[in-house]
Amino acid sequence: MLAQHPFTSKINLIRTRLTLWIIGILAIGFLLLVLITFLIAHSLLVRLTIERLQQNVTSLSDAFGQENPGTNLTLVHNQLDAFSTSKSYLQYQNLQGRPIASSKNMGKLILPLAQLKSAIQANRVIQDVPFNKSSFMMYGHVVVVKGKVQGYILSAYNITDNNAIDLLLTLQYSGIVIILTLAAISVWLLVRHIMLRPLEHLANAASQIAMTRDHSLRLHIGKRPDEINRLAQNINSMLYSLEDAYQQMQHINDLQRSFLADVSHELRTPLTIMLSSLDLMKKEQGRDPEFQANALENIHSETERMARMVTRLLMLARTDAGASFAREPLLIVDIINEACRQSSPSSRTIQLECQGFEIIEDAVVAGNADYLKQVFLILLENAYKYTLDDGKVTVIAAIQRQQVAISISDTGIGIPSDDLASLFERFYRAKNARTQPGMGLGLSIAKSIIEQHNGTIRVESILTQGSCFTISLPLLNE
Amino acid sequence: MRHPRQVLTRTQLLEQVWGYDATLETNVLEVHMGHLRQKLEANGGSRLIKTIRGVGYVMKG
C-alpha cells in the first residue's frame, strides 16, 4: 500500500510532525506557566503564614500582658488552643525556657527557646527550623506584665507538607495533560481539514490532468490567497507554458510533416521527367538526333534543379546543426556574377539589369563562396519566379560605411504587408505566393547564412509593384 | 595562373613563398610585388596584380 501511495505516507508524516511540534511548544509553555504560578503561590503563602504567625503571637502576648498569665492556667490553655491549628503549635514558656502551658496538639514537646532568643529580640521569623522530625517556621514574643518580662509565647508552624500547594500542582498538571491531549486531537484534525484536504484535492486534480493528458485543463483556484492557492496558481501557469510548448511542438511537427511531403514531391517531379525522357530515348534508339538533343537538355536541366534542391536541403541541415563553414576573403562581385549567370532562365523574357558592379569591383568580404552564392541564387530565383514575363530584375551594388550593400529588386507580384514580418520564418509562404512551387525555405536559409556572415537582410515591397531585398555584408577592405 | 581572382592574404603569400618559419618584414612582400608589377606591365600590359588594402593581393586577368 505504501509503495502505491508514497504521497499519503508523506502527508501523514507532515501531519505527525506538525502535531508533535505544537504539542511540544504547548507543553513547554504550560510547564513554564505552572512553574511561575507555583513560585508566586509559594511565596505568597509563606508571607501569609508569617503574617498570621506574627499576628497570632503578638495578639496573644498582648492579651497575656494585660491579664497576668500566672494566675489562670486554664484560660491560658484555652487561648493557646484557640489560636493553634492542626499544623501550628503554641507554647508559653517562662524566662528559663520551661513550658508553662502548651496548645493541646503539642503533647510533651518543648519548643527550643535558645534558638529563638536572637530572633525574638529582632522581632523576626525563623524559617526552616528542624524540630520533631519536620521542618518548622518559628516565631516568639516576650510577655510583659506591668513592665516586667514574665516569659515568652512561642509558635511553630509546620511547613513540611503544604497541602494547598500540592493540590494546586496536581490540578495544574492534570489540567495540562487534558489540554495537551485535546490540542493534539484538534491539531491532528485541523491539519487534515485546513491544510491537507485542499492539498489532496490539488494532487487529485493534477493526477487527473496527467492521466487524461488534456493540457487545456486547469486546477480550481480558491478565493483565499493562501499558500495552497498560490501553489495551484503556479501549477496553472506551468500548465499554460506546457500547453504553449506542446502546441508549438505540434505546429513544428505539422510543418515538418508538410515539409517532408513537399520535399518528396519536389524531388519526384524532376525524377519523373528524367525517367520519361530516358524511356523515350530508349524507344527512339537515336533515330532522331534533334529529339535526342532535346531530351538530353531536359534531363540536364532537371538534374541541375534537383542538385540545387539537395544542396539547399543540405545547407538547411548544416545551419540547423550550427556547423560553421570555412571563410576566406572573397571578391563579392565574382559571386554575384556567377549567381546571375546560373539563375537566369533562358525560356523567359525577363530582363536582368546590373548596376554599380564597377563600384564593388575590388570589394572583399570574408565568407564562404558556396554559401554566399546560394543566398544570391535564392534571391534571384525568387525574383524570377514571382515576376511576370516582360518584367525586369535589377541588381544594384553599392558601398556605404564599410558595408557592401546588394539589392535585388523585381517588378513582380509583391508581398502583402502583413506577410513581411514572418517572411524569413522557415516554411512561411506569403498568401499570394502559394500558386508557385516552393517550400518556404529559401529566405530562411538566406537569412541564417547572411547572419552567420555578420550581415543583414531586409525587404521592402509594394503589392503588385514588386519587391526589393537588400543584403549588407561587412567590407574587409580598409 | 594558379589562383585567378582569388584574394590571397599577406600571410598566405609569405607562407607560400618563404615557408612557415619566415620571419620577414612585411614590406619585403610589397617590394617583390613592385618588381613583379614592373615586369608584367613593362610592355604596356594592364595591371594584373591588385592590392586589397588591409587584406592582401588579387590577380585579375
From TrEMBL, chain A:
Keywords per UniProt: Kinase, Membrane, Phosphoprotein, Transferase, Transmembrane, Transmembrane helix, Two-component regulatory system
Principal location listed in the UniProt entry: membrane
The enzyme's E.C. designation: 2.7.13.3
A Gene Ontology term for the protein's cellular component: plasma membrane
Record-annotated Histidine kinase domain positions: 262-477
UniProt-listed CDD domains: HAMP (cd06225), HATPase (cd00075), HisKA (cd00082)
Occurrences of domain HAMP (ranges): 193-247
SUPFAM superfamilies per UniProt: ATPase domain of HSP90 chaperone/DNA topoisomerase II/histidine kinase, HAMP domain-like, Homodimeric domain of signal transducing histidine kinase
Pfam family, one: HATPase_c
PANTHER family registered for this protein in UniProt: SENSOR HISTIDINE KINASE TRCS (PTHR45436:SF5), SENSOR HISTIDINE KINASE YKOH (PTHR45436)
Official protein name in the record: histidine kinase
Source organism phylogeny: Bacteria, Bacillati, Chloroflexota, Ktedonobacteria, Ktedonobacterales
UniProtKB/TrEMBL annotation, chain B:
GO biological process, one term: phosphorelay signal transduction system
UniProt keywords, alphabetically: DNA-binding
Taxonomy, superkingdom: Bacteria
Residue ranges of DNA binding: 1-61
Listed Gene3D superfamilies: Winged helix-like DNA-binding domain superfamily/Winged helix DNA-binding domain
Signal peptide region: none
Positions of the OmpR/PhoB-type domain: 1-61
Pfam family, one: Trans_reg_C
Molecular function per GO: DNA binding
Protein name: OmpR/PhoB-type domain-containing protein
Source species: Dictyobacter arantiisoli
